[in-house]
Prior knowledge:
Layout: H1 14-17, H2 20-36, E1 42-46, E2 58-60, H3 61-71, H4 75-84, E3 85-88, E4 95-98, H5 108-127, H6 133-137, H7 143-153, E5 162-169, H8 179-182, H9 195-211, E6 216-221, H10 233-263, H11 269-286, H12 293-306, E7 314-318, H13 324-339, E8 344-349, H14 359-374, H15 381-384, H16 387-403, E9 409-414, H17 420-423, E10 439-446, H18 452-459, E11 466-468, H19 474-487, H20 494-502, H21 510-520, H22 536-551, H23 553-565, H24 572-581, H25 583-589, H26 605-615, E12 619-624, E13 627-632, H27 635-645, H28 649-663, E14 671-675, E15 682-686, H29 703-715, H30 719-727, H31 730-740, H32 742-752, H33 759-776, E16 782-788, E17 793-798, E18 803-807, E19 812-817, E20 824-830, E21 835-840, E22 844-849, E23 855-860, E24 874-878, E25 883-888, E26 891-896, E27 902-907, E28 914-920, E29 925-930, E30 934-939, E31 945-950, E32 959-965, E33 970-975, E34 979-984, E35 987-993, E36 998-1003, E37 1009-1014, E38 1017-1024, E39 1027-1030, E40 1036-1037, E41 1042-1047, E42 1053-1058, E43 1062-1067, E44 1073-1079, E45 1087-1091, E46 1094-1098, E47 1106-1109, ...
Parallel strand pairs: 1-5, 5-6, 7-10, 7-11, 8-9, 9-10
Antiparallel strand pairs: 2-4, 3-4, 12-13, 14-15, 16-17, 17-18, 18-19, 20-21, 21-22, 22-23, 24-25, 25-26, 26-27, 28-29, 29-30, 30-31, 32-33, 33-34, 34-35, 36-37, 37-38, 38-39, 38-40, 41-42, 42-43, 43-44, 45-46, 46-47, 48-49, 49-50, 50-51, 52-53, 53-54, 54-55, 56-57, 57-58, 58-59, 60-61, 61-62, 62-63, ...
Amino acid sequence: MDAKVVDLRWGIRNIEATDHLTTELCLEEVDRCWKTSIGPAFVALIGDQYGPCLVPSRIDEKEWEVLRDHLTARPSDLELVARYFQRDENAVPPTYVLQAPGTGEACEPEEATLTSVLRSGVQEARRLGLITQEQWQRYHRSVIEWEIERSLLSSEDREQGATVFLREIQDLHKHILEDCALRMVDRLVDGCLDTDAQNLLSSLKSHITDMHPGVLKTHCLPWSRDLVNPKNKTHARYLKELGEQFVVRANHQVLTRLLELDTAGQELAWLYQEIRHHLWQSSEVIQTFCGRQELLARLGQQLRHDDSKQHTPLVLFGPPGIGKTALMCKLAEQMPRLLGHKTVTVLRLLGTSQMSSDARGLLKSICFQVCLAYGLPLPPAQVLDAHTRVVQFFHTLLHTVSCRNFESLVLLLDAMDDLDSVRHARRVPWLPLNCPPRVHLILSACSGALGVLDTLQRVLLDPEAYWEVKPLSGNQGQQMIQLLLAAARRTLSPVHTDLLWASLPECGNPGRLRLAFEEARKWASFTVPVPLATTAEEATHQLCTRLEQTHGQLLVAHVLGYIVSSRHGLSEAELKDVLSLDDEVLQDVYWDWTPPSKELLRFPPLLWVRLRRDLGYYLARRPVDGFTLLAIAHRQLVEVVRERYLSGSERAKRHGVLADFFSGTWSQGTKKLITLPLVGKPLNLDRKVAPQPLWFSHTVANLRKLKELPYHLLHSGRLEELKQEVLGSMSWISCRGISGGIEDLLDDFDLCAPHLDSPEVGLVREALQLCRPAVELRGMGITAMAWGVEEKLLVIGTQDGIMAVWDMEEQHVIHMLTGHTGEVRCVKIFAKGTLAISASKDYTLRLWNLLSGQEKFTIWDGGSKNPAEPQIWNLHVDEAHKVVYSASGSKINAWNLETAEPVFHILGDASDPWMCMAVLASQATLLAVSRDGVVSLWSSATGKLQGKQHMSSIKEETPTCAVSVQKQGKLVTGFSNGSISLVSSKGDRLLEKLPDAVRFLVVSEDESLLAAGFGRLVRIFLADSRGFRRFMAMDLEHEDMVETAVFGTENNLIITGSLDALIQVWSLSEQGTLLDILEGVGAPVSLLARGGALVASASPQSSSFKVWDLSDAHRSQVPAPFLDRTGLTAVSHNGSYVYFPKIGDKNKVTIWDLAEGEEQDSLDTSSEIRCLEVAEQRKLLFTGLVSGVVLVFPLNSRQDVICIPPPEARKAINCMSLSKCEDRLAIAYDNIVLVLDITPGDPCPVIDGPRYTFYTQLPETLSSVAILTDYCVVYSMTNGDLFLYECANSKAFPLEAHRSRVACVEVSHKEQLVVSGSEDALLCLWDLQARKRKFEMSYTSSYCRGVQCACFSKDDKYVYVGLKDRSILVWSVLDGTLLTVQFVHAVVNRIIPTTSGFIAPTRHGYLIRERFQCLSAKASPQDPLKNFKKAVWMVKSRQREELVAAAGAPQDLESESAQGNETKSNKCSQVCLIV
Length: 1475
């Protein structure tokens, strides 16, 4: 909401405050306030002065004659009046105009005499009944009463937006003749009390009280000689109360009005505002329309001719100012007559509003308006999220309207040159090349050097689509001038008429005629004007010269310069703020007098209002983001302003001041130095400009700042600030992305990046471009994928029914296919990658043209709506016979791909639905397997049943998946108990019995290989004469359940995906060697699709997908990552070596050399590894095994392996821990902990013990453990319980429990503190000596998935924490402050502190080396999480709780606990840096 205070008399001298022009402008501003304000519109402060009464500036002819007749008897009075008023014959009717006194004339005494003379004449005329009461009041009302009358008393419905503060001074009449009192009341010229004015003031107060008592706020003050002295306590108290009352009243007015607007329903207010704006503009334009009747008739005939057939859009073209806009508006008005009264007409005057200035907003508003007009569903939110979807919706909407075969639709888009996306483009991707029947698109564009017409001619090739708009004839030009003069109630004398037409030898250009009129309308009959310029450019320069003579060259240059320099325009409040920051303007304004305040400095608003009035027609007002912005209405004036006022360094200066304003540099009390001419020394004054935060509230962004600031920083040359504060600021990026979308954010980068020599900016832009599909499809999990290899297209379907077509060469979306209303379950691409058919949960099939993005037809597939019935959504496309087969539950349908007509329908048994279906093309057979194992066969041509039989190889198993093998004519089917069967028309045969349910089956492209997924394993089969046989003795193993797989191009690779979001690449030519581990999209890998050498992965739980090029999968990577999938990594030699269970053989430890990027050696443990620990100083590797044994390997040799047996046979180890001095070892089983000593020895350390053994005696199992040198053990349980156990005393001390499983427990290096982290992202810091919690530090966000690992820094000042959301946090041990958050793109398995930071192995197979530095111990106002709007961090302090308790304030603690469980946000973060 834009709050603007209008006080035109602030900052100007008294003589200017009461002149006639100021009074007229004040009254106009009153009207503007009432018209635009949604809350307080008028505030009056009335004291004991009535104010001066001004002589009328104009007197109508009849009124003048009455006055003249009564003044004839007094020649001197008549001569005085005649000297001040001159007759203007060019006014309609003729008017006598008050003349300004000459320079240097002493006008005040004579003007007082003039006022007295006119009043006496008017008084006599009123007595005789020759003039009305209203006419009489024009000579007696003060300026104050004029304003109150206009704003309040002239209407009875103004009470809600008005407030009148009335100051009454008690006993003032007793002191009325004292000098100090006379300054508070009206006085005559001789200094005496003006009793007439006092009487009129009393009458005015009574009138207000009678009409609007609710607006009055009366303040009674006792009499005092220094009453108006600011140091007077009574006066100060009065001012304070008045201010408080004003705030309360204004808030009430605003909230009341907002409530009215809300209850009225404002969901589509933006659309109605847009429609009203263009209709109002159109009505203004056609008021003076003349001529063009022949062209209108021809256009109407063409529209009627095209209405019943497909046709191309029409383009009206001509030079600037030729009248294309007026013609388009006239066409819109006449459309019901041309095509029928039910014709829907949509008019947009492009560039005159924000939504009509860019293609995205334009299409959005058109789609909404057309949908409302035709009663169609409005565009859904997911369509509006991305421009490509809006374009697709727009095209589909035009065809939908055409198919209604009823009302015609006409879209008129005027001034394509003013559409941002077209102005500098080589094509117009959203423009329909052909309009369907009953849909018409009419465009207008300028001919000449702008290039937009050339762009259209490259797109629309039909020469008959272009219609030239030619100049008006001479008579039509004269007619236009006469219409304009009549509308303005003006005329021209013969002399002025001749002068006008002498300046316009060719008067056929309406734009040039309008420029001439704007000058001629100001000519009074008694003046001799300057001859008009003969060209539009000269006329525009002449306008600027006239403005400079009236308002001063510097003010005109800067005001017009700021408006033209703005990106989208400036509101009046913004412009006045900007002028208040412009030192050059202020020094010019206050050249010979000083400002009224010693604390603040502002630009006097009256000076702007005067200039605005003279600009008049040349200023355009555009609705943008809820504001009304000022812009220059004429392109010619914009060019002249740039030439005259923005050349050289002036352009950068204007942008610099605008950048200062939109960045908020001088807001919120920050003072700016200036040296005023009369003062002669620097003054540090507050400019009182509006603050510019990024967010006005949690949901309302500062859109004006977001759109303007990057533009002005760029053009002012402040590139470093642009990089730091905008393009490189996560606060800015998040705000811009949330409020405007990813496309607006990328537009900013596209605007600025070419001018910045900054690789970092380029990287940020590329990152945003990469995440664009995830942002555009946010909230929509991906459920189907298919490749069109020939066209290099990837089609994805989502849970919301949206489909996206990606051009993988250009790596961007080319079409958003909208139509499905349910989840897309299956997509098939055919016809050499040009067509696709999709099946959805909305029971429809849709056929799409992938090149045009058009839907060819929709088929209602009629699937079962029974939620208990399995839904399989199988699709098979038979291109040879042009048939698509679909199976859904208990129905199988066949449809003709050309006509969408049904070929046949097959209905099954709902109690035994089909689970798998395939079309065996070689046998012309359709085969399906039901839930109970019944195999059914039909003819694929007719749907005739050929046979039905129960499977013989399967008993009491349910089909789970299937894949067809066309060469063998078989359907390979997997079952719930692990069976794989080959099913054909001749019968079925058991292929393999797996130990777990078959999760998926896939075949290679040539059908020579088959992969079956079960549990965590994938088994490969090779085709043979009987079907398939096992290919490899070893199965491929994941760490979690496998979900899907796909074979490589040459059958030498298989790519598998699992629930743990990992994708593994295996070499089949090397008997299942693991080549690489890829990170998916952070969700279970449910979809893999291959197109050539490219493989795409996706998940229904994520809106993003990833694509890899596997053509170089066999090449060595430098450096190669270590291929660990378990997370059981250990690190030695300061990160030089990494230890992890060997891929494919967890009975061995791989030793990985990070520098060489290869396996150096492996250690055989003879049992599966459960945990690993490294004693860096002792040079030992501890391996905890499933068998319960701990094997200890010396790192520097392969001799003398130490074996630590388990306390009980075959008891698996859960976890291990080494003390910080590496002299103690704790081994934890399910409920037993062993504590052993490690002592130096030769050639390797000696391990003694166990020294202590203790049982937890709890039903839950141990989850983590930490050991101290003094034989204290901290251990946690799977339910979140935490204990400190003193081995020496055999005592267990319970610590406060976590709310979920504890993932890690770590001891500080000085062994005074312990940190524990749980799966709910809660960290607790414990004081071991006190056995109490010191801090509870929680971090939650929409992405956070709990703590993975933690450790203390070497100096115990910080805690480093790795989260499962792939980020690292740093907390302060001193006070629990969250110091920094860094996203590292991978889950870290553990964190090992170094002297300057930490190292951390990741699930991606890389080692992160980080240096952490806390730059300042001083608190910073910056919040490290300010960019994460959904992230919250809190700290609970035990010390604070104890202090509260010690202070004896249990009630406060209870109240605080009720509000937030004693939780409070911590102080602001320190400034920290992770390198």
